[in-house]
Specification:
The structure is a single chain. This protein is α/β, with parallel strands linked by helices and about 280 residues long. The chain contains 10 helices and 12 strands. Strand 8, helix 8 and strand 9 form a beta-alpha-beta unit.
């Protein structure tokens, strides 16, 4: 997920968010600002963190009025400190007021994810393990949230159900077992698709390896069992550790030797990064 892909998919979602916030009119703004007036407002960081979503922030205002101008002093992936002037937005004051909350909602959410992701990526430095996100995303926010993970230094797991094969516990149950699920997946899917299998114990691991799974997800297993699973796998498949992974408990997973650690917390539990639009004032043309 890169910025170009995100932007190509963003406009309809941003319009929907604006329509959610302005169902008929912005009655407050229209009450105090009856006519066009050029104005300027500053985007300020209110806490330390990593920025993500500046293009989305800008697009909110530009969809309301293409004449809106934004001058950024930082770019996505940059670290900011409390008090930093991130950007200056110039345009119709009515647009600045009406787009403020939607623009900030995107930027704060995406920057929060990037900040949280960066903090975990830093903990993994020096290991071979890569950090992955999951599909535990906010409905209609996936393209933005997965982009923010990349900005924070993480990697994207499959984007959606059409993007890759991941046989989880219920798929295995429906198929009648690990080996049967892998066989059916390999039979159905094009040869270019990898088959990933979620296992919950060492016996399931052995079955997945015998069936020829390409990636083994070690789900909610003990640290000791995961280390044994990596030993038994011996490079025959890639390994992924998953299950309630957070910044607080990831330290004990670093030395297991898995290729990937996936964490739903990157997108479902990251707090926002506090940013604010301040010092709005009219300017003479």
């Amino acid at each position: 997920m890169n910025e170009i892909t995100m932007c190509l998919n963003a406009d309809d979602l941003i319009r929907s968010a604006l329509q959610e916030d302005i169902s008929s009119e912005d009655v407050t703004t229209n009450a105090v600002m009856r006519h066009y007036q050029l104005g300027k407002v500053e985007l300020l960081a209110k806490q330390n963190g990593v920025l993500a979503g500046l293009a989305v922030f800008a697009r909110v205002f530009q969809l309301l009025d293409p004449r809106t101008e934004i001058v950024f002093h930082f770019q996505d992936g940059d670290a900011v400190q409390k008090g930093d002037l991130v950007a200056v937005v110039t345009g119709d004051i009515r647009v600045l007021l009406s787009g403020e909350r939607t623009a900030l909602n995107y930027l704060q959410r995406m920057s929060g994810i990037a900040t949280y992701t960066r903090s975990i990526v830093n903990l993994l430095q020096g290991s071979k393990t890569k950090l992955l996100d999951t599909r535990k995303t906010t409905p209609n926010m996936r393209v933005f949230e997965k982009y923010a993970v990349k900005v924070g230094g993480g990697c994207n797991h499959r984007y959606n159900l059409s993007d890759g094969i991941l046989l989880k516990d219920n798929h295995i149950g429906a198929a009648g077992g690990v080996k049967e699920a892998v066989r059916m997946a390999k039979e159905y899917a094009p040869f270019v698709r990898k088959v990933e299998v979620e296992v919950e114990n060492l016996e399931m691991l052995k079955q997945a390896l015998e069936a020829g799974a390409d990636i083994i997800m070690l789900d909610n297993m003990s640290v000791e069992d995961m280390k044994e699973a990596v030993r038994l796998t011996a490079g025959r498949a890639e390994t992924e550790c998953s299950g309630n992974v957070t910044k607080e408990n990831i330290a004990k997973l670093i030395d297991i030797g898995v290729d990937y650690i996936s964490s739903g917390a990157l997108t479902h539990s990251a707090p926002i990064l506090d940013l604010s639009l301040k010092n709005l004032h009219p300017i003479c043309e």
